[in-house]
Amino acid sequence: MADPHSALAEPGTLAVFGFGAGAPAHDEDPRWLRVALESFDAPAPMELWQVDAPISCGRHDAVRWSAGGGWLFAAIEVDERDTGGIEGAARQAYASLRQFMSARSERCVLRIWNYIANINAGDGDAERYKQFCDGRAVGLDDFFAQGFPAATAIGHHGDAHLLQIYLLASADTGTAVENPRQVSAWRYPRQYGRTSPGFARAMLMPAQDALAISGTAAVVGHASTHEGDVEAQLNETLTNLEALLTTADMPAGFDTHSSLKAYVRHATDATRVWEILQRRLPGVPVLLMHGDVCRSELLVEIDGWRFS
Ligand code: 3EB
To answer: 49-62 pLDDT, tens per residue?
Structure first.
């Protein structure tokens, strides 16, 4: 891992991310975030968000933020012990983000990442991911009444009490994109929980020059497919990604500029997933992460970016 300080010192740096316990804890700069997910690539590269504009940054209660050129990064970390569990943590985190965002000019949330400990613990409606969905909806209130952003919700294996959420917002609106192969998440039937997850399958950036792709798995219609078969799930996921690119009028396939993350549930599947991605997406930078998908039967999920 390179030194985050030099990346933070570059002009136009909106945010810098490190991955896993090996990343520095460095807490002085609100633009630095250590994500609680481990990467299978050692050392994991840093992720760098840069804009062509001067940056201001700060903290507002528990929210840390940076902004420049009409773009905004905001992040919040909540300790579940302070909120009585994941539902309260999600409610508080989203209420804080909503309150912070509503006072900003960069109010259009385009993309959100949620990293949750023990995401599949608990049965039925008591599963922690479903409690997270309940709390998120309450905390958000009507903030996404105009439409949901693209999102990722993945289970991490770090601090068991830590909820991490970060987002990218803009002064200008993006265009949400749905996948014709999939039921929109906010229309999922009751069997997936009391509160349907609020996210769009992808978001076209305001200048229409990039597509932010939500966590995408082997979901067809509303059903999980290929239970127990990581290779078939990965192939289905790639088919879903292709369908999204087509719907968004993006060029087909991914290229060397498209940065993707593949979240793999079982460490024992990582090599196999890597080999398949090398073959199916040659030359595409994919960061392989150890993470749990929010439905326990799903073994792999991919998110990332496609630039036109
Ligand atoms: C799915 O297709 C997989 O709750 O914000 C993917 C992306 C998923 C985002 C979220 C959930 C979320 O339903 C799960």
So the answer is: 999 999 999 999 99
- What confidence score (pLDDT) does residue 42 get? 83
CA of 188 to the centre of ligand 1 (A): 11
Q: What atom of ligand 1 comes closest to residue 214's alpha carbon?
A: 7
pLDDT tens for 15-64 read 999 999 999 887 799 999 999 999 998 888 999 999 999 999 999 999 99
For the full predicted model, state whether its pTM sits above 0.90.
Answer: yes
pLDDT over 60 (residue 209): yes
Dist. CA 239–CA 225, nearest whole Å: 12
> Which residues are bridge partners to 261 per DSSP?
287, 303
Q: For residue 112, which atom of ligand 1 is closest to its CA?
A: 5
Nearest CA to ligand 1 atom 11: 153
CB 214 near ligand 1, within 6 Å: yes
Half-sphere exposure of 70 (CA within 13 A, CB side): 11
pLDDT at 44: 86
294 Cα nearest atom in ligand 1: 14
C-alpha of residue 19 to centroid of ligand 1, in Å: 21
- Tell me the HSE value of 42 on the side-chain side, using a 13 A CA sphere: 6
Q: How many Å apart are CA 81 and CA 160, to the nearest integer?
A: 10
* Token representation of residue 164: 């991490």
SS3 128: helix
Beta-sheet strands, E only, within the chain: 13-19, 32-35, 38-39, 47-50, 56-60, 63-68, 71-79, 108-117, 150-156, 162-170, 175-177, 202-204, 210-216, 219-220, 223-224, 260-264, 286-290, 292-293, 300-307
